[in-house]
Amino acid sequence: MRSVRTGAIICMVLMGTAVCPLQANPVDIVEMEHDGFGAKGVITIWGGGHSGLSVYGGAYMFEKTGGAGEGELWPDGPIGGFCMDLAQWLGSSSLTYEVLKPEEGPRPTTFLGGPMGEDKADYLRELWGRFFDPSWVGGGSFTSEQNNQAEAFAAAVWEIIYEDLPASASAWDVSSDGSAGDLGFRATNLDSATANAWLHALDGTGPKANLRGLSNNCKQDFLVEVPEPATVALLGLGTLILFYRRRG
C-alpha cells in the first residue's frame, strides 16, 4: 500500500488487485469511477479518526457506467454527490457501490458503532432539500461563492453524521466538537457561519430530498440525490436526439 497526495486529499491506494466485497448479494448497485470535483475548497477537519487533516470539502463527481435495481434510477453519465464517510479513503478506479437508504450508512459501521439512523438521515434530507444548489455539481469553473457554499455544505453533512444528536438543531456547530471520545466533528478554514445557519434552520418543516447512499466497504461512501423522473426522461430524450443526429 502506498500513500499518494492528490491536491489536498491523501488517498490510500492498494497496489495490485484489491478484493473488496459488498454486502451479501446486493441487488441495488451502481458502477462508477471518480471523475473530478464540482465546487469545492480545502478545509481542515477533526473527525472520522482524523486530526487536523486537510481535505476537499465540496461536491465529488463520478462517471456512472452501469447499475442494477435502484442503481438504474441514475442514467449512465455524471453523478454529483457529497462524501458521507470520513473513516475511509476516496476510490481511484472504477468501483461497484451498493445503493443504501441514508439511515443505513455509512458502511462499514465500525467507526460510528452502527448506522447513522433515521433521525440523522432526516436532518440530511432536509439540509439537502433546503440548501443544496445543483450549480455546485458538474464541470467547468465555479465562483468563489459557489466554492465557499459547497465547502460549508460538506461540513454540515459531516457534522450531522459524526456528532451526537443535539437536543435541538440550534446546538449544531461545525467549529466545535460536541461529542465525547473519538466521535464528533469540527472544521476550520471554511464559512462556518453559513454551515451553522443552515444547520440551525433544520426544524423538520422544510422540503426533504430523496437521497441515497452509495457505499463501498473499502472506500468512501457518498450521499446523492435520486433524480426526478422528469429529469431522467429529459436526459434520455437528449441521448435519443443525439443518436438520431449521428445516424442522419
The gist of it:
By secondary structure, the protein is of the alpha+beta class. It contains four helices and nine strands, in the order ββββββααβαββα. It has one domain (2-12, 27-247).
Description:
This protein has 248 residues and is an alpha+beta fold. The chain has 4 helices and 9 strands, in the order ββββββααβαββα. The chain has one domain.
What layout of secondary structure does this protein have?
Elements: E1 2-6, E2 9-13, E3 29-47, E4 50-68, E5 77-83, E6 95-100, H1 118-131, H2 144-162, E7 185-188, H3 192-200, E8 211-216, E9 219-225, H4 229-247
Antiparallel strand pairs: 1-2, 3-4, 3-6, 3-7, 4-5, 5-9, 6-8, 8-9
Helix pairs in contact: 1-2, 2-3
Which keywords apply here?
disordered N terminus, disordered C terminus, 248 residues, alpha+beta, globular, two-stranded antiparallel sheet, 4 helices
Low-confidence stretches: 1-19, 230-248
Q: Roughly how much helix do the residues carry, as a percent range?
A: 10-25%
How many distinct helices? 4
The amount of beta strand, in percent, is 25-35%
The rounded Rg comes to 18 Å
